[in-house]
Amino acid sequence: MIKIISRKSDLAVIQAELVAKALKNVNKDVSLTFVTKETEGDVDQLTALSKLSNIGVFTNDIREALLNNEADVAVHSLKDLPIDEQKDTLVVSMLERADLRDILFLKKDSFDNYSNKELRILTSSPRRAYNFSNFLESLLPFKANKISFEDIRGNIPTRLKKLLNGNSQGLIVAKAAIDRLISCENKNISNEISSLLDNFFWMIIPLSLNPCAPGQGAIALEVNSKRKDIIDLVKKVNHIDTFSQVNKEREILKKYGGGCHQKIGISIENKFFGKILTIRGQTEEGLKIDKREVLENENDWKNIPEANFFPSNIDNYNLFERKLINRNIKKIKKLKHTNIYVSRENALPKGENVDSTNVIWTSGIKTWKKIAKKGYWVNGTSDSLGEDDPKINCLSDNKKWVKLTNNLTPKNYFKSHKNPKNARIISTYQLEQTNNIEDLNKKTHFYWMSGSAFKLALKKYPKIVNAKHSCGPGNTLKTIAKYVEKNNINIFLSYEDALKTIKKSGD
Known about the structure:
The protein is α/β, with parallel strands linked by helices. The protein has helices at residues 10-26, 40-43, 60-67, 111-114, 126-139, 156-165, 175-183, 187-197, 228-235, 240-255, 326-329, 365-373, 411-415, 451-460, 475-481, 495-505, and strands spanning 2-6, 32-36, 73-77, 89-94, 102-107, 118-122, 146-150, 170-174, 200-204, 219-224, 263-271, 274-282, 288-295, 309-310, 320-324, 338-342, 359-362, 380-381, 400-406, 423-433, 445-448, 468-471, 489-491. It is built from 16 helices and 23 strands.
């Protein structure tokens, strides 16, 4: 009989059950039982986590159970584990990682009641408080007089209840925790969380603004280093990509001193074009860190004169005038229980009455900020990485998707990755060509922000098909790939990223 030990919280038990299911999948004959234990961090619910000096307050007591042979496999939220390796135990495996992102909940109220008042946000994380203070105001559909962060302790249901019944307005937690609680097999837990969430607005924060705590979303399996039999079994459930990804994040944090009290977020995202590393925060010495890059990204955009790059100035990119299609805009008001994907800020004009049952998702952060200024609550963004997988998960029961975009967008681009019956496009504005296109035959390298702009330029200057082209990893890439050879296409995270590369190559 193999004993699996975890903390006593609902989330910890759910995670232990996920481990048991994984072990059963690789050995259906294995006998398993569960043990739970309170840790120092569970017992002390009054002291702020940032003030608890003992590293591993949620894991040390569990680890002792392994060393004393009270249990065989310890299950942890990996972000709770100390950065340094522990003597006599090993983290042998990790299950496939869940969502890395954080989620903000805000009590449902009129935005007018929030305007010009203090917004108090609950969080136990110095990282979250620091990073959110740098961007949260720009994502909200109202102007808060002040945003402050207050400490909170307790498990997820406890925190949600403290938010609901207390004087604070918001709460930040890991989205992976919410997803696991809502989707668990225990309907009492699932229904309780779902019922609590009905009281709040929610927004999922992109990693480009708020990278996670290293290892967030991953479940770690720790064993006694002397138990070769257990090690051999547990290794069979290891998700190799997660294991590598998480250990890399932890190695980077260790260079800054490590520890859960750091104001530093580090995330690595695995994408089809490479791994994106994002680091945001502040060291204990006060050094600010702000980095986002594609790891091991080899490109030939070197030693390129800026004069050969289009657009070297973003003002030169006005290839179209945009005019609203009022008959289609009226359709927005009729949408209910729908996930609305906003491709560009002007696709959703100010003053439209968007039903509260809808979810609003944007293509990127710039669009989010502009939509928020118009008074709309935005639930999340594709972070300029393409629209294929928004990863809303259990937070929305909406099945239908509608994309608000221009009249030239190919209809199949939005339907190709979703059920065609539940995905459609509403063209809320039309593109009309301007006469502002400079002589592009003189350019050798291009960055495109839309497939329509690329096709317009290509029609007027066919020779540029043999030049070097770049864009983000979304639909624009699909369009360019139809005309340009693969080795002449490069992916950047943004126009600014491409321009920075060009300028750096000219140093």
